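Why do we care about 3D structure at all? Because function follows from shape, and shape follows, mostly, from sequence. That is the central idea of this module. The next example makes it concrete: a single protein chain, its amino acid sequence, and then its structure expressed as tokens.
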Amino acid sequence: MATYDLVVIGTGPGGYVCAIRAAQLGMKVAVVEKNSTLGGTCLNVGCMPSKALLYSSELFEEAGHSFGKMGIKVSAPTLDLPALMNFKQQGIDGNVKGVEFLMKKNKIDVVSGTGKVLGTGKVEVTGADGKAQTLETKNIVIASGSAVANLKGIEIDEKRIVSSTGALSLEKVPEKLIVVGAGVIGLELGSVWRRLGAQVTVVEFLDRILPGMDGEVAKQFQRMLEKQGMTFKLGAKVTGIDSSGKLLKAQVEPAAGGTAESLEADIVLVAIGRTPYTAGLGLQEAGVTLDERGRVKIDHHFATSVKGVYAIGDVVAGPMLAHKAEDEGVAVAEILAGQAGHVNYDVIPGVVYTTPEVAAVGKTEEELKAAGVNYTVGKFPFTANGRSKVNQTTDGFVKILADAKTDRVLGVHIIGREAGEMIHEACVLMEFGGSAEDLARTCHAHPTRSEAVKEAALAVGKRAIHM
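And the structure:
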């Protein structure tokens, strides 16, 4: 029986980062992974492969529509989808091998198989051959991540009715694609296949896209996506899909009830969210308490109801984001080492990696209004940003929300090219409790898109220079 200081179940960003930090702090660590490769959903069938497809499809569209106006004459691009998928796979393989290297470098044992918590100090691992072994450990961290949420009455076959996993590996570009769900995953993957030639219709139960994001941002972003050719049916639900014919027929009804319509598609992507992955972990048998949504209940130190068992990432409450899981992994490792591990949940950025990108950190206007907080708004459009103008990529704006009394920045929202990179100066500012004035008086290089962030901070005090 192997004995460890820590056994981590799952090697996604939360799990492998937790393992590495624990090893850095002198612990003897093992990770348990049920899949044939490390890295979890993010590296294998999520964040990373989707970014490869987003990048390549964006270049494909630019070559076909934007190069000419810049004086770059090329013939119309043709799509080699197998080669594009190979490009994606090369990225996956490189990242997975990177995690394997980090496990070896940090002397972390990798145990292949399905982990099951037997209680305090014991994890049973069943390999693909059915043989089981027991790992003895002082502490256990559950980092098992999440799984695709299913639509009631609709079976995902990953061929014609697909989840995000199947949508990353389609064998041909669909003529018509229906995306069920207007969240981050649906919009990102929908935009990939739209750029590659599909007619994309997005069906969303709510009356808006990107639930949880700032309302003004969502409205502006929807207009941009519609201009790009995406169609939206909001306040609607898919109640069934007839797959008996050559084309799929999706029954779509108003969310509030009413007359149904039938939409035809080659592919239907179900992207209504994700659910915590707890199946087969033996949590309830071991006495680990779950909440009403199937998430593992933890205290402010990530501890579950069973002594020595902790949980992080998608399997606990909070945004299902890889970087949130990573920060929790570091925090719990440091807590186990006797340090003051901590995660600031008020400063966790979120990004939609479409074109343009959408990025946000902190509070939305709706949240501030609901909480009764008096705030000021500073906005600056990229149409007034020099770098964006010369590149002719002027879609979007920067919006900063600051406390009306203290000027402390409470939220920042950006739509625009490279928004996912620009959001981080706001994160650093907010981590240190900075004000809009602090940001406005910080020198920004010219010409950069990031100057729009400075200008939005100036606009909080009604003194933007270039608007």
